[in-house]
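Progress report, Aim 2. The chain analyzed during this reporting quarter is listed below.
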Amino acid sequence: MDKPFHSLDQHFHLPHVRAVAPARPLQWLRTGWADMRDNLGASLAYGAILAAVGYLILSYAADLPYLFTAAISGFFLVGPLAAAGLYEISRRHEAGEPASFMSSLRGLRRHGDNLMYFGAFLAIALIGWERISAILFALFYPGNVPQLSNLVSEILFSGDYVHFVVAYLVIGAALAAVVFALSVIAIPMLMDRDTDAITAAMTSMRAVGVNLGAMAVWAALIVALVVIGFATMMVGMVVLLPLLGHATWHAYRDMIR
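Predicted C-alpha coordinates for the chain:
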Protein backbone atom coordinates (compact mmCIF):
# COMPACT_ATOMS: atom_id res chain seq x y z
CA MET A 1 0.00 0.00 0.00
CA ASP A 2 1.29 3.47 -0.82
CA LYS A 3 2.31 5.51 2.22
CA PRO A 4 0.03 8.52 1.54
CA PHE A 5 -3.00 6.23 1.32
CA HIS A 6 -1.85 4.30 4.40
CA SER A 7 -1.73 7.58 6.35
CA LEU A 8 -5.25 8.44 5.19
CA ASP A 9 -6.46 5.03 6.34
CA GLN A 10 -5.01 5.54 9.82
CA HIS A 11 -6.27 9.09 10.27
CA PHE A 12 -9.77 8.73 8.82
CA HIS A 13 -10.31 4.97 9.40
CA LEU A 14 -11.08 4.45 5.74
CA PRO A 15 -12.66 1.22 4.52
CA HIS A 16 -10.70 -1.17 2.34
CA VAL A 17 -10.56 -0.25 -1.35
CA ARG A 18 -10.49 -3.06 -3.87
CA ALA A 19 -8.47 -2.73 -7.08
CA VAL A 20 -10.49 -3.43 -10.24
CA ALA A 21 -9.59 -3.91 -13.89
CA PRO A 22 -9.69 -0.91 -16.26
CA ALA A 23 -12.53 -2.55 -18.22
CA ARG A 24 -14.69 -2.92 -15.11
CA PRO A 25 -16.81 0.21 -15.84
CA LEU A 26 -18.50 -1.70 -18.66
CA GLN A 27 -19.79 -4.16 -16.07
CA TRP A 28 -21.01 -1.25 -13.95
CA LEU A 29 -23.07 -0.05 -16.90
CA ARG A 30 -24.54 -3.52 -17.40
CA THR A 31 -25.55 -3.89 -13.76
CA GLY A 32 -26.77 -0.29 -13.72
CA TRP A 33 -28.97 -1.06 -16.72
CA ALA A 34 -30.39 -4.08 -14.86
CA ASP A 35 -31.21 -1.88 -11.85
CA MET A 36 -32.92 0.67 -14.06
CA ARG A 37 -34.91 -2.02 -15.87
CA ASP A 38 -36.08 -3.55 -12.57
CA ASN A 39 -37.04 -0.14 -11.14
CA LEU A 40 -38.07 1.57 -14.35
CA GLY A 41 -40.77 3.94 -13.08
CA ALA A 42 -38.76 5.37 -10.18
CA SER A 43 -35.58 5.59 -12.27
CA LEU A 44 -37.21 7.40 -15.18
CA ALA A 45 -38.95 9.74 -12.75
CA TYR A 46 -35.55 10.91 -11.54
CA GLY A 47 -34.29 11.09 -15.11
CA ALA A 48 -37.24 13.22 -16.21
CA ILE A 49 -36.92 15.60 -13.24
CA LEU A 50 -33.17 16.08 -13.66
CA ALA A 51 -33.45 16.47 -17.43
CA ALA A 52 -36.21 19.08 -17.02
CA VAL A 53 -34.18 21.05 -14.48
CA GLY A 54 -31.13 20.89 -16.74
CA TYR A 55 -33.16 22.08 -19.72
CA LEU A 56 -34.54 25.04 -17.77
CA ILE A 57 -31.06 26.06 -16.60
CA LEU A 58 -29.60 25.83 -20.10
CA SER A 59 -32.56 27.75 -21.55
CA TYR A 60 -32.04 30.53 -19.01
CA ALA A 61 -28.32 30.70 -19.85
CA ALA A 62 -28.80 30.52 -23.63
CA ASP A 63 -28.26 34.27 -24.13
CA LEU A 64 -25.19 34.33 -21.89
CA PRO A 65 -22.49 32.23 -23.59
CA TYR A 66 -20.08 32.24 -20.63
CA LEU A 67 -22.89 31.14 -18.33
CA PHE A 68 -24.12 28.55 -20.82
CA THR A 69 -20.71 26.89 -21.09
CA ALA A 70 -20.28 27.04 -17.31
CA ALA A 71 -23.72 25.43 -16.88
CA ILE A 72 -22.86 22.56 -19.20
CA SER A 73 -19.54 21.84 -17.50
CA GLY A 74 -21.11 22.47 -14.10
CA PHE A 75 -23.56 19.67 -14.83
CA PHE A 76 -20.68 17.26 -14.34
CA LEU A 77 -19.79 18.83 -10.99
CA VAL A 78 -23.21 18.43 -9.38
CA GLY A 79 -24.13 15.15 -11.10
CA PRO A 80 -23.00 12.85 -8.25
CA LEU A 81 -25.22 14.67 -5.75
CA ALA A 82 -28.18 14.90 -8.14
CA ALA A 83 -28.10 11.11 -8.51
CA ALA A 84 -28.32 10.42 -4.74
CA GLY A 85 -31.90 9.20 -5.02
CA LEU A 86 -30.85 6.71 -7.68
CA TYR A 87 -28.16 5.34 -5.37
CA GLU A 88 -30.85 4.80 -2.75
CA ILE A 89 -32.99 2.90 -5.28
CA SER A 90 -30.05 0.63 -6.11
CA ARG A 91 -29.24 0.17 -2.42
CA ARG A 92 -32.78 -0.84 -1.59
CA HIS A 93 -33.04 -3.07 -4.65
CA GLU A 94 -29.81 -4.85 -3.69
CA ALA A 95 -31.10 -5.36 -0.14
CA GLY A 96 -34.42 -6.75 -1.38
CA GLU A 97 -36.36 -3.78 0.01
CA PRO A 98 -39.12 -1.82 -1.79
CA ALA A 99 -37.44 0.64 -4.14
CA SER A 100 -40.12 3.13 -5.14
CA PHE A 101 -39.61 6.81 -5.88
CA MET A 102 -41.15 7.78 -2.53
CA SER A 103 -39.00 5.34 -0.56
CA SER A 104 -35.89 6.80 -2.19
CA LEU A 105 -36.97 10.26 -1.03
CA ARG A 106 -37.15 8.95 2.52
CA GLY A 107 -33.58 7.73 2.12
CA LEU A 108 -32.51 11.20 1.02
CA ARG A 109 -34.15 12.71 4.09
CA ARG A 110 -32.48 10.17 6.36
CA HIS A 111 -29.02 11.20 5.10
CA GLY A 112 -29.94 14.85 4.63
CA ASP A 113 -27.30 16.40 6.89
CA ASN A 114 -24.28 14.79 5.24
CA LEU A 115 -25.74 15.34 1.77
CA MET A 116 -26.22 19.01 2.68
CA TYR A 117 -22.55 19.34 3.65
CA PHE A 118 -21.44 17.76 0.43
CA GLY A 119 -23.93 19.85 -1.52
CA ALA A 120 -22.41 22.99 -0.01
CA PHE A 121 -18.97 21.91 -1.23
CA LEU A 122 -20.31 21.24 -4.73
CA ALA A 123 -22.18 24.55 -4.75
CA ILE A 124 -18.98 26.40 -3.88
CA ALA A 125 -17.16 24.56 -6.67
CA LEU A 126 -19.93 25.39 -9.13
CA ILE A 127 -20.04 29.08 -8.18
CA GLY A 128 -16.26 29.24 -8.35
CA TRP A 129 -16.27 27.71 -11.83
CA GLU A 130 -18.96 30.15 -13.02
CA ARG A 131 -16.80 33.07 -11.83
CA ILE A 132 -13.67 31.61 -13.41
CA SER A 133 -15.57 31.13 -16.66
CA ALA A 134 -16.67 34.77 -16.67
CA ILE A 135 -13.11 35.94 -15.94
CA LEU A 136 -11.69 33.82 -18.76
CA PHE A 137 -14.18 35.26 -21.24
CA ALA A 138 -13.32 38.78 -20.08
CA LEU A 139 -9.56 38.21 -20.28
CA PHE A 140 -9.33 36.40 -23.59
CA TYR A 141 -12.33 37.60 -25.55
CA PRO A 142 -12.24 41.35 -26.34
CA GLY A 143 -15.41 43.14 -27.32
CA ASN A 144 -18.85 41.63 -27.36
CA VAL A 145 -19.19 37.92 -26.78
CA PRO A 146 -20.86 36.28 -29.82
CA GLN A 147 -24.31 34.80 -29.79
CA LEU A 148 -24.49 31.18 -28.71
CA SER A 149 -25.19 30.05 -32.27
CA ASN A 150 -21.85 31.51 -33.39
CA LEU A 151 -19.85 30.69 -30.27
CA VAL A 152 -18.46 27.33 -31.36
CA SER A 153 -17.53 28.37 -34.89
CA GLU A 154 -16.00 31.70 -33.85
CA ILE A 155 -14.03 30.54 -30.82
CA LEU A 156 -13.15 26.94 -31.63
CA PHE A 157 -12.65 27.05 -35.38
CA SER A 158 -11.49 30.58 -36.17
CA GLY A 159 -8.02 29.96 -34.75
CA ASP A 160 -8.03 33.35 -33.04
CA TYR A 161 -8.76 32.13 -29.53
CA VAL A 162 -6.42 29.19 -28.99
CA HIS A 163 -5.18 30.57 -25.67
CA PHE A 164 -8.73 31.00 -24.42
CA VAL A 165 -9.70 27.44 -25.42
CA VAL A 166 -6.58 25.95 -23.83
CA ALA A 167 -7.00 27.92 -20.58
CA TYR A 168 -10.71 27.10 -20.37
CA LEU A 169 -10.20 23.39 -20.95
CA VAL A 170 -7.18 23.04 -18.66
CA ILE A 171 -8.73 24.91 -15.72
CA GLY A 172 -12.12 23.27 -16.20
CA ALA A 173 -10.61 19.81 -16.48
CA ALA A 174 -8.49 20.33 -13.35
CA LEU A 175 -11.50 21.45 -11.29
CA ALA A 176 -13.64 18.62 -12.64
CA ALA A 177 -10.93 16.06 -11.84
CA VAL A 178 -10.71 17.23 -8.21
CA VAL A 179 -14.49 17.21 -7.74
CA PHE A 180 -14.79 13.82 -9.46
CA ALA A 181 -12.10 12.29 -7.24
CA LEU A 182 -13.70 13.61 -4.05
CA SER A 183 -17.32 12.82 -4.88
CA VAL A 184 -17.67 9.88 -7.29
CA ILE A 185 -17.70 7.27 -4.51
CA ALA A 186 -18.44 9.59 -1.58
CA ILE A 187 -22.14 10.18 -2.12
CA PRO A 188 -23.06 6.51 -2.68
CA MET A 189 -21.06 5.77 0.47
CA LEU A 190 -23.02 8.40 2.42
CA MET A 191 -26.26 6.78 1.26
CA ASP A 192 -25.05 3.34 2.35
CA ARG A 193 -23.11 3.83 5.59
CA ASP A 194 -23.24 5.75 8.82
CA THR A 195 -20.22 7.90 8.05
CA ASP A 196 -19.29 11.55 7.71
CA ALA A 197 -18.75 13.59 4.54
CA ILE A 198 -14.98 14.00 5.05
CA THR A 199 -14.37 10.26 5.48
CA ALA A 200 -16.52 9.58 2.42
CA ALA A 201 -14.59 12.15 0.36
CA MET A 202 -11.23 10.72 1.44
CA THR A 203 -12.42 7.21 0.61
CA SER A 204 -13.53 8.40 -2.82
CA MET A 205 -10.15 10.01 -3.43
CA ARG A 206 -8.38 6.83 -2.37
CA ALA A 207 -10.60 4.69 -4.62
CA VAL A 208 -9.68 6.88 -7.58
CA GLY A 209 -5.98 6.70 -6.67
CA VAL A 210 -6.02 2.91 -6.40
CA ASN A 211 -8.01 2.50 -9.62
CA LEU A 212 -6.71 5.24 -11.89
CA GLY A 213 -7.22 3.18 -15.05
CA ALA A 214 -10.78 2.11 -14.29
CA MET A 215 -11.78 5.56 -13.05
CA ALA A 216 -10.30 7.25 -16.11
CA VAL A 217 -12.41 4.94 -18.27
CA TRP A 218 -15.44 5.63 -16.08
CA ALA A 219 -14.95 9.40 -16.31
CA ALA A 220 -14.66 9.15 -20.11
CA LEU A 221 -17.86 7.10 -20.30
CA ILE A 222 -19.70 9.63 -18.13
CA VAL A 223 -18.56 12.51 -20.33
CA ALA A 224 -19.49 10.65 -23.53
CA LEU A 225 -22.97 9.69 -22.32
CA VAL A 226 -23.73 13.14 -20.91
CA VAL A 227 -22.60 14.75 -24.18
CA ILE A 228 -25.04 12.47 -26.00
CA GLY A 229 -27.72 13.64 -23.59
CA PHE A 230 -26.94 17.28 -24.35
CA ALA A 231 -26.90 16.56 -28.09
CA THR A 232 -30.48 15.25 -27.82
CA MET A 233 -31.64 18.49 -26.17
CA MET A 234 -31.78 16.73 -22.79
CA VAL A 235 -34.29 14.10 -23.98
CA GLY A 236 -31.66 11.35 -23.82
CA MET A 237 -30.85 12.39 -20.25
CA VAL A 238 -34.15 10.86 -19.11
CA VAL A 239 -32.56 7.44 -19.65
CA LEU A 240 -28.84 8.19 -19.48
CA LEU A 241 -28.83 9.90 -16.07
CA PRO A 242 -30.56 7.00 -14.28
CA LEU A 243 -28.24 4.57 -16.05
CA LEU A 244 -25.18 6.47 -14.84
CA GLY A 245 -26.60 6.84 -11.34
CA HIS A 246 -27.29 3.14 -10.90
CA ALA A 247 -23.95 2.23 -12.47
CA THR A 248 -22.13 4.57 -10.06
CA TRP A 249 -23.71 2.69 -7.16
CA HIS A 250 -22.23 -0.54 -8.51
CA ALA A 251 -18.86 1.19 -8.95
CA TYR A 252 -18.98 2.02 -5.24
CA ARG A 253 -20.02 -1.50 -4.24
CA ASP A 254 -17.35 -3.02 -6.45
CA MET A 255 -14.48 -0.98 -5.00
CA ILE A 256 -15.43 -0.36 -1.37
CA ARG A 257 -15.53 -3.14 1.21
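The chain has a mean pLDDT of 85. Residues 27-255 form one domain. These observations will guide the mutagenesis work planned for the next reporting period.
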